[in-house]
Design goal:
alpha+beta; eight-stranded antiparallel beta sheet; Alpha-D-Glucose-1,6-Bisphosphate, Chain A, domain 4; START-like_dom_sf; 346 residues; 33% helix
């Protein structure tokens, strides 16, 4: 009995000492700011913060868990928009609101975590450093914590900074794909043969061999594109603005053959772990290409391919694979909208 009394006294003294140290030496809340810069225009950056459906696709706070369930409430962007989230696996949940908006300059968020009635306040300011570069500053004010929980303030700023680092990497990938798509659409000139340098790409897809009959080939392309898209979007959880246009890679002149072998896939920002052996990664190395944009029936692409091959032969260039990049997703009974790229070299 005496042992338990002594133990109780020790516990009381330890808790008292801890509480006193927390009360006198640790602030009840934290205020800090973090600055980052990103190589994209302020209007494109702001829209990713202002629309909560976009925001949750790249912010690591939400993307780091596959078990999180998010509900979105109207309006979906700007002042008054909000979400609620529940992560059953990690036993957390909460609500987030946009309370103030100044277009391309300022946003003010409130984040209520778990059952805490006091929100974390996050003001985000955007400044145009140049037409293609934006400075982002987060001003964070955390809620007051009880004396026994104040120790959490020792790692709050570090945890927030780590989340921002990971989020900015995700945002860069999202904006990179979005800007690339916008620029590509704006630059299209159909049926004009051009020269273009292709940067390295990592493509996730499948290898296929099939009949080269008129209808059978395109139906096969559509079917296998859908397989890849469903795997990337559903199994891997990627959103449309996280990956590039679908691409089909094949021999330049195999349109003459009875059987066609091709690889069809979707560009991703980097290689990731996959568990389905039907899919594999292929790296497209930097190349110089002869390109032509084509819109029409899938069978009609042959004439455009022949133009590219004739140009290569005329210029005494050797050529490799041809890539068919679908600007619009391939669907049955519809014309295709694509960029045909023939890699050439001396």
């Amino acid at each position: 009995m005496r042992f338990f009394k002594i133990l109780a006294v020790i516990v009381i003294l330890v808790v008292g000492a801890y509480a006193s140290s927390m009360y006198f030496f640790v602030e009840e809340n934290k205020n800090f700011q973090i600055e980052k810069e990103i190589d994209y225009p302020v209007d494109k950056v702001f829209s990713q913060f202002n629309n909560l459906q976009h925001f949750t696709r790249w912010n690591n706070f939400f993307t780091s868990s596959k078990s999180i369930d998010i509900d979105y409430y109207t309006p979906y962007e700007g002042r008054g928009s909000s979400i609620s989230y529940v992560d059953t696996k990690n036993e957390r949940g909460g609500e987030m609101f946009i309370r103030y908006e100044n277009q391309n300059k300022t946003l003010k968020y409130q984040l209520f975590e778990d059952k805490n009635e006091n929100p974390t306040l996050v003001d985000v300011k955007f400044k145009e450093v140049s037409p293609e570069r934006t400075k982002i500053t987060w001003y964070v004010h955390t809620p007051k914590l009880s004396v026994l929980r104040r120790v959490e303030n020792f790692w709050t700023e570090d945890r927030f900074a780590e989340n921002i680092d990971k989020s900015m990497a995700n945002l860069k990938n999202v904006l990179g794909n979005k800007v690339e798509k916008d620029n590509q659409m704006a630059a299209i000139k159909y049926d004009s043969l051009m020269v273009e340098k292709e940067e390295e790409k990592v493509v996730l897809g499948i290898n296929i061999s099939t009949s080269n009959k008129k209808d059978a080939l395109y139906k096969n392309v559509v079917m296998n594109y859908n397989k890849v898209y469903n795997y990337v979007s559903m199994d891997l959880g990627k959103k449309d603005d996280e990956f590039g246009y679908p691409v089909l890679i094949t021999d330049a002149d195999n349109y003459k053959d009875k059987e066609v072998s091709y690889f069809i896939g979707i560009p991703l920002s980097k290689k990731i772990g996959i568990t389905d052996n039907n899919f594999s990664f292929r790296t497209i190395n930097p190349t110089q290409d002869y390109i032509i944009y084509y819109k029409g029936t899938y069978e009609g692409r042959i004439r455009a391919i022949q133009q590219l091959i004739q140009k290569a032969k005329k210029d005494e260039m050797r050529f490799g694979d041809i890539r068919q990049t679908f600007i619009e997703r391939p669907t049955e009974d519809h014309n295709v909208n694509m960029k045909l790229s023939l890699s050439v070299y001396k």
